[in-house]
Amino acid sequence: MSRLYLMRHGQTLFNELKRIQGACDSPLTDLGKSQAEEAKKYFESESLSFSGLYSSTQERASDTLEIVKPDEAYTRLKGLKEWNFGIYEGSPEYLNPPAQEGQESYGDYFKTYGGESVTEVEERMSETLTELMKQHRDGNVLAVSHGGALYAFYLKWRKAEDIRPSFSNCCILVYDYEDGKFDLVESINPGQ
Questions:
Q1: What highest taxon heads this organism's lineage (predicted)?
Q2: Residue 130: inside a domain, yes or no?
Q3: 3-class SS at 47?
Q4: Using one digit for the tens of pLDDT, what is the confidence trace for 30-54?
Q5: pLDDT in tens, 125-159
């Protein structure tokens, strides 16, 4: 069995300004850098080592990983990118569609506007992370991604008894991986 540490990037300027941020990017704030430092301290306190380090190709994720694991080689992967929100990118968050009764995500909403559906994000994240875990049998993997992508992955693999984790900046979702399946073990929010 191997273990996946799936982490969200630190706070960004767009997070602070309450802007929709998917395919577009913005830099880490001072708070975001501090959050990454807290995650670094957590991994050090647990004496965790990783057989693979990965991040989204977006700078906010790679910048976070470079703080958490400075001077260590890692691979950037498009499959770990944030949900693409189409023409809503960079818009104020209040323009997000209202939650539909009985739905837990935006579903196909953003696909109509040039973005991705939740199913597409679930599949992309699952395919990417499954391939990574196959490469690191019996090892720990750290992957830095994004809130919407983490949430879509969670929806794909959750079990009825799972307690909904926090998807705050620099949260760490810990999954066991075995026989092609991911099992959520815990959610960690360093420094909070």
A1: Bacteria
A2: yes
A3: coil
A4: 999 999 999 999 999 999 999 999 9
A5: 999 999 999 999 989 999 999 999 999 999 999 99
CB 10 within 8 A of CB 60: yes
Confirm if 149 and 120 have CB atoms less than 8 A apart.
no
What DSSP designation does 23 have? S
Of 102 and 114, the one with more pLDDT: 114
Full strand arrangement of the beta sheet holding 172-178:
75-77, 52-56, 140-145, 2-8, 172-178, 181-188
Tokens representing 146 are 């994004």
CA-CA distance, 10 to 168, in Å (whole number)? 9
Q: Which domain holds residue 55?
A: 2-11+34-84+118-188
52 part of a folded domain: yes
Give the total number of structural domains in the chain. Answer: 1
Nearest residue to 88 (alpha-carbon basis) of 21, 25, 152: 21
CATH number at residue 171: 3.40.50.1240
Q: Is residue 28 part of a domain?
A: no
The number of beta carbons lying within 10 Å of the beta carbon of residue 1 is: 11
Size (the chain), residues: 192
CA dihedral 62, 154, 169, 85 (to 10 degrees): 70
Sole residue written with tokens 């380090």: 53
CB-facing half-sphere around the CA of 99: CA atoms within 13 A: 5
